[in-house]
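S1.2 Input.
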Amino acid sequence: MDLTIHTTFLPHTDADASLAFYRDALDFEVRNDVGYGGRRWITVGPAKQPDMCIVLEPPAADPGITDDERRTIVEMMAKGSYARVTLATADLDGTFTRLQASGAEVVQEPTVQPFGVRDCALRDPAGNLIRINEVR
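S1.3 Output.
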């Protein structure tokens, strides 16, 4: 098999704030921005990786999710325990400095983890955990 990761989904609670974070702070390009039924789905991704996408979507957009489940998801998002993505960069310190200057919520400054990876962690405007690994 020859598989690649094409698209992953992260929830957002404020489309404009999430767009500003991913487009302006992370420097991702906007690939699609679709509204439907008062909700908004925004597809972003790194310019140098046109086949890799993150879709920022309304939380619990699946119509099969109950109102109670939707509330639980929003509560978990607020705590930062619902969704996460791990990115990678060769310039962890420069990337961290830029994201910190953008006002992103810092969870962990760059550090070497006990398992050998050097990384940092931030939260996007919806509370999603964004870990960034240093690639050497």
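S1.4 Remarks. Residues 4 and 52 are 9 Å apart (CA to CA).
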